[in-house]
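Field log, afternoon session.

UNIT: design team B
ACTIVITY: writing a sequence onto a fixed backbone
BACKBONE:
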């Protein structure tokens, strides 16, 4: 079944999980890749020339190496990284996808930090449980044009790995991802109201965060390599599969939309966590035709 048909299946409760591919689509200068931004910061802070991420180190580890080796400056590395994305333009694919999500009342999760998606509709940031807000982990913060009643049922844009507005929230390094795992794990596995204890979505600690969408919606993942660098999200997908194995009546579907070949290890991971692979002919089949 093709991507567009899947999106409109009435029995599904979709949520879009969007990576940086949406910014790189039809990008002329290819400067919207995070690897390019990190290399620019490496040249500035470390001073050594590098033409790419060296073989043998992941993108997240490269960030940590930059943080350790770089000359300390007045601005944090996270804040400087955000500044490099501040002028990224809204493109036609952003408009199409956000408009579709708003019309169909579909939440969007993004691993991106910048505001290109929310800028489509000039959305403002809001907070659920504002008394628990922290700019380090703003997991209850969202961009929308209305009040959110329940995170899984309303259109809003949620930033999984941090948002440009709060530079301290940006998760780029391996140590950052490990911190996110440490924050999420107790919500799933600690206390009487933990999700894995009773599958009570109305009472668990993550009910007013984007985590609720991961476990309650059918996920459409695209623009995201979802490789070994995505430590936090891959861990969440493993936990999601474990949860559905225990509470099969709660099971939701997930789809990975991609172009080209998939490495055997990547395929094994996706299939193991219950994600169906949907292949499209070209990137127009992801960012243009379905919407």
């Amino acid at each position: 079944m093709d991507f567009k048909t899947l999106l409109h299946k009435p029995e599904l409760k979709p949520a879009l999980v969007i990576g940086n591919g949406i910014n790189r689509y039809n990008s002329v200068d290819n400067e919207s890749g995070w690897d390019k931004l990190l290399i620019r910061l490496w040249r500035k802070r470390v001073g050594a020339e590098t033409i790419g991420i060296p073989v043998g180190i992941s993108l997240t580890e490269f960030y940590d190496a930059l943080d350790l080796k770089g000359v300390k400056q007045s601005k944090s590395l996270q804040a400087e990284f955000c500044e490099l994305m501040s002028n990224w333009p809204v493109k036609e694919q952003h408009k199409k996808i956000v408009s579709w999500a708003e019309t169909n009342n579909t939440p969007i999760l993004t691993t991106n930090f910048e505001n290109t998606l929310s800028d489509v509709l000039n959305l403002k940031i809001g907070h659920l449980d504002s008394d628990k807000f922290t700019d380090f982990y703003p997991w209850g913060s969202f961009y929308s044009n209305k009040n959110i009643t329940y995170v899984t049922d309303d259109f809003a844009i949620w930033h999984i790995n941090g948002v440009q507005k709060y530079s301290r929230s940006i998760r780029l390094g391996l140590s950052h991802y490990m911190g996110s795992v440490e924050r999420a794990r107790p919500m799933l596995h600690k206390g009487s109201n933990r999700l894995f204890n009773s599958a009570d979505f109305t009472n668990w600690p993550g009910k007013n965060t984007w985590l609720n969408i991961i476990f309650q919606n059918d996920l459409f993942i695209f623009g995201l390599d979802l490789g070994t660098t995505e430590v936090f999200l891959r861990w969440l997908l493993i936990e999601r599969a474990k949860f559905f194995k225990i509470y099969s009546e709660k099971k939701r579907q997930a789809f990975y939309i991609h172009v080209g070949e998939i490495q055997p290890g990547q395929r094994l991971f996706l299939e193991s966590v219950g994600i169906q692979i949907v292949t499209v002919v070209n990137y127009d089949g992801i960012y243009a035709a379905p919407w």
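LOG NOTE: The first helix runs from residue 3 to 7.
NEXT ACTIVITY: expression trials, pending approval
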